[in-house]
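Researcher: Hi, I'm a grad student and pretty new to this. My advisor asked me to get structures for two proteins we've been looking at. I'm not sure of the right format, so I'll just paste the first sequence and hope you can take it from there.
Model: That works fine. Here's the first sequence with its structure tokens right after it:
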Amino acid sequence: MRTGSTSSPPSGGYSPAAPFVQPPAPKGRRQPALIALGICLIGISATGFVFWSHQAAAKSPVLVLTKDVGYGQKVTADDLTTADITLANGINAVGADQLPLVVEKVATGQLHAGSILTAADVASAPPIPAGTDLVGLTLKPDDLPDGLTPGRKVQLVAFKGWKIPAGTKFADLSKIPQPPDWMVPADPATWSATVVSVDKLRITVAVAPADAVMVQEYAHNAGALGVILLPAGS
């Protein structure tokens, strides 16, 4: 039997037994400054968009009062302007496009210049003050003071009669056409009231329920009831 050694392959030859090694991928060049700049720009853009969206959604064109308007008075176009305002939650403001529907309505309370007009601030007719009754009065022209408008506070005055000095004896006082000079008016009865509406010589006032019957009784007697116009805002 022949024996011997196996000769090695020639130098530089291919050996199928040699393992294949994958060369490492080339490393990319990092640019930290550019990456940081990109992230910063993205953040600024996102913040600006959110801020712009928030501002656009928060502001609304609404009606704002330019003058004071008293209770029961009609609201005119000159009393209002428009403004873009950020509204707080729960404020039912009247939009600027509702101006034609608001004009000629009446104020349900004292409205102040600079305030936002809300839906509850106006109505088609003056509201009845809480806890009051309405009484209609027909007065003579001379009994109506100037400046009598819905919402104004007034004092109704009526004389109960005449005081007769003690000891005076008359068989029938009704035969006296006019009270003599020594007779003095009795203490007048007065009632606080709020004017709700004015229609020529007839006015409607709101009074306390306990006073309504008495006021109505005097109202039926021509000349027995007078109206005193109290200062505005009283």
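Researcher: Oh nice, that was easy. Here's the second one.
Model: And its structure:
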Amino acid sequence: MTTRAYDYYYRRQPRSWSRRAGAAVATALCTACVALAAVMLIPALFGYERYVITSGSMTGSYDRGSIVFAKPVPVADLRVGDVITYVPPAGAGPSGLVTHRIASIAPDPAGRLVFRTQGDANPGPDPWTFTLDQPTQARVDFHLPYVGFAFAALADRTLRMIVIGLPALLLGLVAAARLLRQPRHEGGRA
């Protein structure tokens, strides 16, 4: 295709509504992907860990589906009222990580700090107490409501493959369509 033909076909012809709609959808998807990547990567550059809230025990402060960003701080810097994400003691009941507010801190006879937490939506404190064996603990600094639903969905392998595979397939189809639409040039000179 000559430069003049290219200019005429691609620059001077108005785009159809389907092309404009396709471009708008592609732009929206790219923007969403970049925003999600920024939410994942930028806080990590500043030392934050992210956790998705999956239960309703902190409703009112951090609703289900929120992402909380926690930064490790020295255990000695923790205060009553701080929200931490931790693993409850074995046999306490919940499995996995818990994000709750510190309800009390008291030293035990050995001088270690014993913590008790409570979910903001729970009527009373958690039935267990615990000590923190590591020198630092993740303390929540800020959150993004409802963004965690996207992270939780991407934890599913099938959905993750669709989210990655479908755009790749569409890009391949668009590239193939463009190749088929281009006029064929005879190679070589006679």
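Researcher: Is there anything I should tell my advisor about the second?
Model: You could mention this: The CA atoms of residues 77 and 136 lie 9 Å apart.
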